[in-house]
Amino acid sequence: MLVIGGMGVGGPGNLTLSLLDAVRSSDQVFAEAYTDPEDMLTIKKVEELTGKKVIVLSRKDLEEGQGDQVLEPAKKSPISLLVFGDPFIFTTHLALKRRAEQMGIEVKVVHGISVLSLAPSCSGLDPYRFGPPVTVVYPDERYGYFPETPYEVIADNLSRDLHTLVLLDVKHEEGRYMGFSEALGILEKLEEKLSKGALRKGRPLILLSALGSPREIVNWVRLGDVVDDKIYNLPKSIIVPASIKFYEQVPPDFQRMLHRNG
């Protein structure tokens, strides 16, 4: 049997009892750590609370090996794979689940807190007014790789009066974690290129860091403001708000720019 369990976000305090029970019942425990260098604190807490040794894998281990390191032992005994956030927010874990089922392995899922639910809650915006999320990825201009998808998704959501949650790229094996300044610079370049007016200078944005943890920061800024990345902890994300309804929470300085009764 394979348990795919979400460790949530925000640190060890957000581990669930269901997850810990699943780990205690497992013969081997693996964990995928790739988003935050402080992920190991949560993994160490799992070891402390369960008495189980956790073997840490990278996303590369799961993708390139098709998860064989986890799936082969799961044919014979209970195995847990722990991931941050909720297991099926990203497609890697869905693919692993499908492959396990094709191999005849029973799969159990333990869900965890995700940034997709935390972001609306922490921002004070209506979760029903969010469109599809999108990720700003690292471009590689040497090869002409500068994806326009983040801008297109934001522009489409704004055209439908929907907020957008923007996730920032991570290259864990390379030790690269995109900061706000870099992400905003990419979005500004896309505005210059595509010129749809979705991300003009001065547009209000919400910067989110370390959601669900004691280090959590939620700041409203304007596009073009100088952002000091040093004060923000990982993981980081951005909300591009659409118009604001009367029941949503907005700092007074931003109400005039975004507020519509509705």
Structure report:
There is one protein chain. This protein is of the alpha/beta class and 262 residues long. The protein folds into 2 domains: 2-110, 3-Layer(aba) Sandwich (Cobalt-precorrin-4 Transmethylase, domain 1), CATH 3.40.1010.10; 115-258, 2-Layer Sandwich (Methyltransferase, Cobalt-precorrin-4 Transmethylase, Domain 2), CATH 3.30.950.10. It has helices spanning 17-24, 39-50, 59-64, 68-74, 91-102, 115-123, 149-159, 180-194, 252-258, and strands at 2-6, 28-32, 54-57, 79-83, 107-110, 134-136, 164-168, 170-171, 176-177, 204-209, 217-222, 236-240. The strands form 3 sheets. A 5-stranded parallel β-sheet has the order 3-2-4-1-5, with helices on both faces. The mean pLDDT is 90.
Give me the CATH superfamily of the largest domain. Tetrapyrrole methylase, C-terminal domain
Find the structural class using helix and strand composition: alpha/beta
CATH fold description of the largest domain: Methyltransferase, Cobalt-precorrin-4 Transmethylase, Domain 2
Can you count the beta strands?
A: 12
CATH architecture of the largest domain: 2-Layer Sandwich
Shape: globular
Helix content percent band: 25-40%
In the CATH scheme, the class of the largest domain would be Alpha Beta
Overall mean pLDDT score?
90
Radius of gyration: 20 Å
Please give the order of strands in the largest beta sheet.
Answer: 3-2-4-1-5
Tally of separate helices: 9
H/E topology pattern: EHEHEHHEHEHEHEEEHEEEH
**Sheet of most strands:** 5 strands, parallel
What is the strand content? 15-25%
Tally of distinct domains: 2
Low-confidence stretches: none
Kindly, what is the distance between the CA atoms of the first and last residues, rounded to a whole number of angstroms? 50 Å
